[in-house]
Amino acid sequence: ETGVTQTPRHLVMGMTNKKSLKCEQHLGHNAMYWYKQSAKKPLELMFVYSLEERVENNSVPSRFSPECPNSSHLFLHLHTLQPEDSALYLCASSHPTQGALSGANVLTFGAGSRLTVL
Amino acid sequence: DAKTTQPPSMDCAEGRAANLPCNHSTISGNEYVYWYRQIHSQGPQYIIHGLKNNETNEMASLIITEDRKSSTLILPHATLRDTAVYYCIVRVGAGGSYIPTFGRGTSLIVHP
Q: Which residue among A35, A43, A105 sits closest to B98, beta carbon to beta carbon?
């Protein structure tokens, strides 16, 4: 366990379904991230939240909708996805302010949610 | 953040040292070098980071050249469980823009 928990670990959904991925951390971090990792591709940054405000949206289609209700929780709402959206979705957190003291703005990742869109 | 270049794959015998190189010739003065690894289908795991001095922890050693344009991650006694993709990234230590970008990394295979 890394301290970042993602649920569900596996999700199969149809193109017309609506589902959500959840990420939770109790590390006291104040920045949270969503990454997408497709087969044999590098990790792609999707969204960044800092102090519950979205600070980065990396040209992600609107069928992916993030939500950060507080600094410990991050959601990724999914609707009308396409088969090419099948991937491993990874959540991470960090504490950039603490990192200023140690020089270590380290990301802690969850185990990921494996999504299959039929 | 500066760009990094890593060999796509390497292999190493179990029990030997694995030396993974990373080139970051455009690194700027306030950028740190970070290493992560990703074991198949899991989330990446932080290994070590440094600014200009060599660093060592329980997982690995990081050697940064004097001009900071390249670095080497050393796993002193590789085991089969060290088989993973290793990512080298450079970024500002804290504050400002903290958008970490991962490349393709180096796929390390440790064989018996």
A: A105
**With an 8 Å Cβ cutoff, are B44 and A97 in contact?**
no
* Residue A56 neighbours by CB distance under 10 Å: 16
Radius of gyration of chain A (CA): 14
Q: Which of A88, A96, A103 sits opposite B32 (nearest CB)?
A: A103
| CA distance to partner chain A, nearest, from residue B72 (Å) | 18
What is d(CA B73, CA B61) in angstroms, rounded to the nearest whole number? 6
Give the model confidence (pLDDT) of A52-81 as tens digits.
Answer: 777 777 789 999 999 999 989 999 999 999
Give the Cα separation of B10 and A107 in Å (integer): 25
Residue type, A77: H
